[in-house]
Amino acid sequence: MRNALKSLMFIALLLLGSGGVAVSAADLPGTPDVSTGAPLPGVTQSDLQALQLRLDGLKQQISSANNYNQLEGPQDRVQTFILDIDRLSASLLPQQAQLTVQLGVLGAAPAEAVAAEQADIAAQRATLIEQKTKVDTALKNLATLKQSATDLITQIAGIRRTLLESELTLSTHSILNPGFWSPLVNPSADDRQRLRFFVEQVQQTGAEAWQPGQRFYTALLVILAFIVWTFGRRLADRWMAWVCIHRMPEGRLRRSSLAFASALATLATTAIALELLYYACTRHVPLPPMLATFSEEFEKVVYACVLITGLSRALLSTEHPSWRLPGVADEVADTLQPFARILAATLLVLVTSVQVSNASGMSSQIVIAGRGIIALVVLGIVTTLLMRVGRVRKVLAAAGDTQVAGNTFAGVIYTVATLSMVLSFGALLTGYVSLARFITYELVWAFIVFSGFYLLMQLLKDSCEYFFSPRHSSGKALKQLLGVGDRRLEQASTLLAGFGRAALLLLAVITLFVGGIGTTLGQLANNIGTILGGAGLRKLNIVPGHLLNAMLALLIGIYLIRALRRWLDNEFLPKTDMDPGMCASLSTLFSNIGYAVVILLTLSSLGVQWTNLAWIVSALSVGIGFGLQEIVKNFVSGLILLTERPVKVGDLISISGVEGDIRRINVRATEIQLSDRSIVIVPNSQLISQNLRNVTLGGSAQGVATLELMFPLDIDPEQVQNLLFDTYKEHETILEKPAPFVRFSKLTPDGITLTVTGYVASPRIVGTTKSDLLFEILKRLGAAGIELAKPPST
C-alpha cells in the first residue's frame, strides 16, 4: 500500500510541511541567504562536487536495489534533489541578472586605454566578467545535474514497472505449503544478522537521544507528540466542529464542512506528532541511512492509516448521524465504523514489519512471506466486514427500507469488493502472493481516493450553492456587483459546481488508473499532461500495453459525456430562458463534440501519431467516394441544422407529403412524429436540399379553419351568411383579427356553395376547431329549418 499511496503522501507532505527526512536547499553548502538582503554568493566548486557525490550515492542505492519496494526511498530523494537544484538555480538568477545589468552600464571594452581612470573601469569590468562567468558556469553545471536526475527518475520508473510486473507474475509457495511459513519460523543466519543490525541502529539512535542532559527534552517531546496525537486530535476536532457550527450557515455547507474539518484535524495533528517525534530523535545526530529509509516509509504508512480512519470517521459520522454526507443507514454505518480502526491498526503493524525487512535488506523469502500475511489478514478483515454489512442490508431490506434495497451504488461497491477478495484468496492459494497483496492494496487505495474526492466534491457543490445563493450575503453582493438576477446566479452555481465536480471526478479516475501503483506526484502530473496535451500522438506506436489505457479512456469518456448531458438536460438548460428546441439542439451538439473528443483521446492513449494517419485518410476518401457519400452528406446537413436552425425540435413541418412535429435531430437523420404518433425518419440532407414548409417557424404562425358548404337554391343567402358568420365569431378559438368572413364560392344547378374562413392561434388546433364548428353549424341550421343541398344522384 506504500506503493499505491505515494501520490497522496506527497500531497499531504506538501500541504502539511516537508517531512523530517527531506533535505532543503538551506541545508546545502553554498545556498544563498536572501533574508538579509546581502549580495548572493556563488556556488563553489566544492558545492557542485557535493551535489555530484549526492547524486552518485543515489545512483548507487538504485543500482543495489533488488526488489520493487527498495526503490521508493531513492525515488523520493531524487525528487528532493531536483527541488534543491531548482532552489539553488533560482537563487543565482538574480545575481546573474544584476551582473548583466552592471556590464551593460560599463559597456564594451575599448580598443585601448586612453586615460588613467579607464584602467579602473577595465579592472571593474574584468571582475564583473569573471563573476558572471562563474555564475553562468554554476548554472550550467546545475542544469546538467538536474538533467541527470530527471533521466534517473525516468530510469527508476522503468525499473519499477519491470520489477512490479515480475513480482505480480512471480509464483511462489502457496499459503497452504509449509515452505511459505518456514522463512518466518526459522529465518536464516543472514536474516537474523541483518535484523540484529537494524535493532542495534535503533538502540544507538535511542541512546543518542536519551543521553544525559537530553533526557528531559526527549521525554518532553515524546510526551508532547503523544498528547497531540491523542488529546490534541480530539481538541482540534471539537474546536473545528465548534467553528463550523457557529460560523458556517445552517444547511448542507455546514454538514460538508464538518466532515472536511474532521478529516483535516486528524491529518494535521498526526503530521505535527510525527514532526515532534522525528525532531526528538534527530535534533543532535541525523539518522543513519538505514533508519532514514525506514523513517520515510514509516511516515507514509502512518499517513495512509490515518487517512483510512479520518475519512471513515468523517463520512460515517456515527456520533452525529445528521452530519453524515452519504446516504448510509445508521445500522450500516455502525457496522462499518470499527473496521476502519481495525484495518488501520493492522496495516500499521504488519506493513511496518515488512518495511523493517526491506530497510534491513533481508531475503526476498521473508519479504514475500510478510506480503502474504498482510494480504491474508486484510482479506479476513474485509471479508468479515462484507459478511456483516450483507446481513445488515438483508435485515433492512426485509424490514422495508427502500433506500437500502434500491441503493445501486452500494451494491456495486459490495460486488467489486467481494470479487476482489475472491481473486486475492485465489492468488494466495495458487502461490501468487504479490498479486494478492496488489489486489488488497489497490482496494484500500481505491477507498482512500474515492472517499477523499467524494468529500471534496460535496464540499465544492455545497460551497457553490451557498456563495451564489441570493438568500445569503455573498449572493446579494454578487447581484449588486454584476447586476444579475436570481436565475443567473443559480445558473452560475450549477455550472461551476458541475464543471468542478466533473474535473474532480476525472482527476480521481486518473489518480486511480493512470497514475499506477507507486507513482509520485510529479509523475502523476506528467501523465495527466501527456493525456491532456496529446504527447502520446507523436508517433504511431500501438502496443498491447496501450490497449488498456485506450479502453479506459473510451469507457470513462463515454460515461462522462452521458453524465454531463444528463446534467445539461435536467439541471442547467431547464434553468435558462431558451426554448425546448434550442435546448435539445445544444444538448445534441455537445454530445457530438464530446464523442469526437473521446475518440481523439482514445487514439492518443493508443499512441497514434496524426502524421502517420495518411493511409487512413486515403482509405476514407475512397470509401466516401463509393459508399459513404450519403452518410457524410447527412452528417454535414445535421451540423447545418443544429447551427443555422432552419428547423428545430418542436416545429411543425411538411416535406414530401409528410407533415408532423420534429421530435429529434440526430447526426444522420431527423425524427418526425405524425398525428397518429408514428415516427418517420427523414435524412437530414432532404431537409436542406428540398422545399420544406415550416408551419411554426418563429412561433407566430396561425392556423386557418375553412369549411365549404353547399345549400339549395331556394335559401335566403343573407340568413345563411349571418348564421355562419355568427357561429365562427362566437367560437372561442377563432381570432378577432384577422376577422372571419363568408365568401360566395360557386353557383350551380345543384345549389349554392358558401365558404366560411376563420383564423386560429396555432395550426395544431385547426382540426379540432373545424370539428367543433361543423357540429355547431349543423345544430343551428337544424334549428333554423335550413337543410344542406343533397348531392346529385349518379
Automatic annotation (TrEMBL):
Q: Where is the Mechanosensitive ion channel MscS domain?
A: 631-696
What residues does the Mechanosensitive ion channel MscS C-terminal domain cover?
708-788
State the membrane topology. Multi-pass membrane protein
- For this UniProt record, give its keywords in alphabetical order, as a comma-separated list: Cell membrane, Membrane, Signal, Transmembrane, Transmembrane helix
Compartments in which it is found: Cell membrane
One of this protein's Pfam families, by short name? MS_channel_1st
Residue stretches making up the DUF3772 domain = 142-199
Q: Please report the stretch or stretches of sequence annotated as the Mechanosensitive ion channel transmembrane helices 2/3 domain.
A: 588-629
Keyword Acyltransferase set for record: no
* Extent of the signal sequence: 1-25
Write down the superkingdom of origin: Bacteria
Q: What transmembrane ranges does the database entry give?
A: 216-236, 257-280, 339-356, 368-387, 408-432, 438-457, 502-522, 542-561, 582-601, 613-632
The protein's matches in PANTHER family, at most eight in alphabetical order, are given as: MINICONDUCTANCE MECHANOSENSITIVE CHANNEL MSCM, POTASSIUM CHANNEL RELATED
Q: Which family does it belong to?
A: Belongs to the MscS (TC 1.A.23) family.
Q: What is this protein called?
A: DUF3772 domain-containing protein
Q: Which species does this protein come from?
A: Pseudomonas fitomaticsae
